Amino acid sequence: QTVLQGIVLLPLRAICIAVIVLLAWLFASIATFRQPGKGSVPLKGWRRRMIQTTLSCLTRTAFFVMGFQVKVKGKIASLLEAPIFVAAPHSSFFDAIICALTGMPSIVSRAENLSTPVFGTILNSLQPVSVSRQDPDSRKNTVTEITKRALSRGQWPQVI
């Protein structure tokens, strides 16, 4: 019986996750279409709200489809209380759960991830701080960018 359930559930879950990823890509594409500043200026207004609400909801739904149910205890710090949000140990795709629960903050990601089909568009919509492994000044530039965003008084989303 469990093998039969697996044979039925696995394809259904895979199809649901594929649909969720394509919807996330669609919303990310709409939010970043003709975006002024293309990453150097924070998203504002409807663009920012669309990313925060739709991607957060879609990510939560994807994890639910995969069988994860997450309950938050306590109060999540607001952007003004904590412009930098630290997640540890930062070792797996479970970091996406934290992103979904905290309203899709900006993340620190290697620059190569931004050119990945579909996922690169979704990642770009989160306005990441990109780290280039080829640039010797990348570490210093990353710290400078995180500091700039942390001191922006809510102009940029939280950085995780």
TrEMBL record:
InterPro entries: Plipid/glycerol_acylTrfase (IPR002123)
Chief subcellular location: membrane
TM regions (residue ranges): 12-33
Domain called Phospholipid/glycerol acyltransferase: residue spans: 70-156
GO biological process, one term: lipid metabolic process
Record's keyword terms, sorted: Acyltransferase, Lipid metabolism, Membrane, Transferase, Transmembrane, Transmembrane helix
GO cellular component terms attached to this protein's record: endoplasmic reticulum; membrane
One Gene Ontology molecular-function label: 1-acylglycerophosphocholine O-acyltransferase activity
Subcellular location per the Swiss-Prot or TrEMBL entry: Membrane
Family under the similarity heading: Belongs to the 1-acyl-sn-glycerol-3-phosphate acyltransferase family.
Protein name: PCAT2 acyltransferase
Organism of derivation: Ardeotis kori
Lineage: Eukaryota, Metazoa, Chordata, Craniata, Vertebrata
